[in-house]
Every structure is written in structure tokens, then in C-alpha cells.
Structure prediction request, 746 residues.
Amino acid sequence: MSEPHSATISVLVRNAPGVLVRVAGLIRRRGVNIHSLSVGPTEDPSTSRMTIVVDTAPERTELFAKQLRKLVEVLRATAIDGTPSVDRELALMKVNVTSGTRMEIMEIASVFRANIVDLTDRTMTIEVTGRTEKVDAILTLLARHGIREMARTGQVTLVRGPQNT
Amino acid sequence: MARQATVPLKPRAAPLKPRAAPRAGQVNGAQALVESLRREGVRIIFGVPGGASLPIYDALYDADPLRHILVRHEQVAVHAAVGYARASGRVGVCTATSGPGATNLVTGIADAIMDSVPIVAITGQVPREVIGNDAFQEADVTGITMPITKFNMLVMSASEIPQAVHQAFYLARTGRPGPVLVDIPRDVSQEMCVPEFTDEVTIPGYRPILEGAPNQIAAAVKALAEAERPVICAGGGVIGSNASPELAALVDGTGIPVVLTLMGKGALDELHPRCLGMLGMHGSAYANWAVNGADVLLVVGARLDDRVTGRLEDFAPRARIIHVDIDPAEIGKNKPAHIPIVGDAKRVLAVMAAQARAPQIESWWRQITEWRVRHPFRYHQNDHRISAQYVCDMLNKVTGGRAVAVTDVGQHQMWMAQWYRPRAPRHFITSGGLGVMGFGFPAAMGAKFACPDETVVAVVGDGGFQMTLQDLATAVEHGVSLAIVVLNNGALGMVRQWQSMFYGGRFSASLLRNPDFARVAEAFGARGIRVERPEQVEGALRAALETEGVPCVVDVICDPAENVLPMIPSGQSVAEMILDE
Prediction:
């Protein structure tokens, strides 16, 4: 079996009690590690979309999607492996600032098209949106200023073009 | 770093208001449940009542012709429901109260999902307003059973009961069958409603694929026709989909040898000349050699678990694999399939049988016959000690393989799998995937309730029998004619065997000091026969099989040192098969 890598699986589920637990439980008992899992409503109020990023060997990803499809409340499960897609995640980072570092941090934020959404004399909260790599990159630059706390949404994904995810 | 967000939860129904006088057409939830069960064709429910299911039991009180069988432990209820389902092909039903009643069902539900058995479990739950408060006898039963049910549901209003029950039965018996649990709070059972019964079912995310893709089937037919050393491996799915006639047609039309998994025993008449019996860890040497030598292997309704394959890369190493299964997730799960076919075994095999062309396999059969003659199953029966294998062989002779044989789990199970040759499907019932000790006797009781005109025999070990034998009381109460053969070797035999083979004979906690099972049986009001000498075996088996109106326990004192062979040790391959001591 080849090395595990990050695979994205998009799962459309019925809004029903316990669906999140069913999906998360299945992932756990099939021995797959979750990188991120995000859930939210879709264009159809009776369904939600989960975007799950897991560590799995490439040849297991589709098998894993098949297991997800077996859940009665799962309407679709798509392994987005190699399909052109739009991937985004949002992160909020609360960074230490001083009068000496404020301008530099604002510059970094500007390069990454990040928004400064809160500012005090000691902290700055930055909102950044993008692919996981971009979030990781700004995180690396800001880390040396001291990140007091951070919240990330996990990745959301849609397939590019008219094809459904 | 998992992020969890909230999926909108269904709002809880308002607490039950004091009940007004019933309006016309109104019944309570429990009555709606019983009527729903009747509409599903349920005839028998196995269960134990309790606080949270009292309203259900009140509705069952005059639910004729729906019969409730009161068992002495909920585990027996669920195993009996499984035995009932496997013997008859109908959905088995069991019920338990909240908390401890429901948790006692867990083992049997897990057995049912592993072996794809259609059962519906109905559990009482504490009243809605105290759910989540750690109320008396509360357990999160839908949470606990989530990984071991095909589906489960907590019903939050009485008016939802008819639809929930109909969905439960539909899900249990269609597609890949499995257990479904319906959890009903006590106040929902008491709530008045005007039930709307329906024959329709709409489950948007659930569409089993029944017809195999024609081009894939054509490719499979071609591969089989061109094969030089083909083998068919039939599993429990063939029995579950009632595909035995189609399998026999394919075999008769092509002459291809057939091996059976433990779950597939009886899928083909085991006296059929093309049938090589069971493969796998304790399968016949010739079945395993045939699979090892095969150039095309057709797997139908089998999930190729580790007890069948041993080390995966050495399983059927020369074969192109055609894998037919109704569950797409089973195909390629353990072993990649060259020709995958998703579909119902019955429909796929029917098409294959109609299109099949016989391959040229005379020399392949010469080879298999030579293996068969060289290494049949064998045992040694002397004048002093009874070989458990001799008992299984004798049971096969006495019944002609026409009794429904139900086994427990362990050495005796494997000996029965080797020696008992069922002539028809649903005549060999065993806990295959989960391997539940304590399964045999309750499942046999369930099988007898399902098929009262069949001869049913439970073959159990002394260890497993003691896990559920209290329900002899139930069998006696209902006058169940059931032969129970205890292959008593004074040990947890399979554990003892592994300790003897792999742990230097250090028999840690595997030797048992047993009661006299014949006298235990008599104390329950059953018949008991103790067998200590080889010449008593045949007579005792015949007497037990002919006993009417009460169960008959035959306690056979067997050789404590006998091992199950051949054996492919766990994680190894056919090359490492141990043939003789």
C-alpha cells in the first residue's frame, strides 16, 4: 500500500439527527485519520454538505467513499482526487503586536489579501481565506510574532465547471 | 484537527400532555407499532419486557396471531431472531426494554451485521423529556448500536411509528440485508395518534443495485469459458438472495468446481459432484489447493475475509478474480477484482447461467480429484475415547444432511463445517463473522420456531452452551422439539488448540469443570442423555432427533486433545497448511 496522503471527500447528507455522528463514527472505525471536517447547509434546505479531508492511501480513497455511500442518510460521496476543484478554508488568527511590529504584520496580511478584523494595542486578529497551503504560509510568517490563538474552518470544496461535486 | 459543526437537529416533540378521551381512529403508539408489525407479516417476536416497553407489551397482550416468545435473556431473543431469519429468509424480530435490556441485544445485532442477517430490533427508551438526563435504565442505544446496525432510529412521535417500522423492515431485508433497530420512548408508545399505514417507502440515499452490468457479466462469462482452471467461491450472499438454483444451473452448465465459505455452506448441495466443500483456515486441503491453482476465480456473495484468504497476497495468486456482490464496498476491499460486478447474486447468476459456455477443464478435474483422494478430511475413532469429528460425521449420516444444523462457535463449529454436508441452503446456520459463543442453542430455537416441520439440531461446545443454556426453560415451556448435541471436551477447545499449537501447551484459563449437562437438562424439564462410549453415539443422536415435545440434550464426552485440521495458521497461506498432527 502506498503512503497515506490527504484526500478530499465531499459528502452530501440528509439533514437528520445524528448524521454527523454516523459519518464521523464510520471514519473512525475504518481507521482513517481526519484532517478536517466541515459541515454546512446547501442550496437545498433538506441536505447538508460535509467536506472531509482524510489521511489515506490513494487507492483506499474510493473504497472509503463507497463505505460512506452505504450510510442510509448519505446521498452522495465523491472522492475529489485529481478532479479540478476549488478548495478554500478560512482562518482567524490572533497575533501579538507592538507598535514596532504592527506595520510589518499589516504588510504580510496585505500580501496574502487577508483582512484585519480586530485590533488592540497588543493584538491583531487576521482573517485569511484560501487554499490550505496559503493559510499555512501566512501562519508560518506570523508565527514568529506569536499567535495567541487560532480558529480554522477546515476545507470546503466544490468541483470546477458544470459537473456536480 | 477535526472541526465539528452542527447538523440541524430535529426539534424534540413537545412533552406529552394529559391524555384526553381518544378520538375515533385513535390508537396509542404501541398499538400502532403492533399493527405495523402485523402488516409486515410478523408472526413471532422474541423478547423480554421491562419498564420502558410496558406499553408495547400491553399492546402485545391481545395481538393474536402475533406471538411473543418470552426468553430468559435478551441475548437469546436476538440470536433466536437471527436463527429465525436465517432458517426462513423472513425478517426476524426481537424486542427489549431500555438500558440493560437493549445493551443485552448488542452482541446479536453485531452478529447480524457481520453475517448480513435481516432482523429488526425494537427497544423501549426512557420518556422523551428525560432522554439525556441519565434517567433510570437509560442508555444511548441508537448511539451504541450505530456502528453495528444497517440503520437505526429514535422515534420521537407516535404518528411516525408506522413509517419507521415500514422503513426498518424494508432496509433490513433489501439490498445487503442487515439489522435495523427502532428505539421508542415509553411516552411515545403511550401517545395517542391516528396512524397512517403505508406500503410506500422513499429513502433518497438508498438505492441497492440489483442488476449486474451486462458488459461486465459478458466479460465474466467469457473469462470462465476460456479458463483452464476455474473455481467458483460461493458465500452467504448466495443463500441470502435465494440464488442456489441459479448457482446450481451455472455449475451444471459449466462443470466448474465450487468451494463454499463457512457462510456459504449449503448454497450448493454438498453432495453435488462439483462441490468441494469449505475453503479457508479449516477448509479442505483440496478446496484450498483448487483456489490456489485457479486461473479464474468467480467469487459470489462472499467478502473474502481473513479466515478465507489467509495472507492476502498469497490468496488465489494466479487467478483473475470476478467478484459479484450487492455491496459495492465489498468489491476490492480485501482483494482487487479484475471483473467487478455489483448486483444481486440471484439475478447476476441467472444471467451468467443463461449465457455460460462450458470450459475445457478435464485435466483440471483430474488434478482436483487426485487432491481429493490424497487428502480427505480424516479422524481416528478408537474404542476408548469419542472423537468429536466422529459425532459430526455420524450426525451427517443419521440426518442425511437434511436437518437444519445450527452450531455454536469453536472447534465443534469447524468440525461440523467439515463433516456436516447440508443438501440445501438454510440448513447450516452458524455465527460466521462475529464468532459468537452462546449463539448456537438460541439460534436453533429460533430456527425451529421459523420452520416447525424441519428437524433442527443444535451442535454446541461445552463452553458456548453455558453462555445461554438458561433458555432451556423457554424451549421446555414452548415444547420445542430440538436436539442439542454438546460436544463436551472439558475445554474452550479452540483456545486450548491455539495454546497447544502456538503457546507451548500453557493452557491458561481454557480448561472447564462442567456440570452434568444431561442432568441440567432434566432439571429444566428437558430430556437429557449422557454419552461416554463410542458405541452409544449413534443411538443417542437418533433418540434426540426423534424426541418430540421437549428439547433433548445429548452430552457427549469427547476426546479433550483432538485438534481441528487441516489448518492454515492465521495470516499465512496454503503453502503453510498444517495437514496432520
Notes: Residues 86-157 of chain A form a domain with the Alpha-Beta Plaits fold (CATH 3.30.70.1150). Residues 36 and 154 of chain A are 5 Å apart (CA to CA).
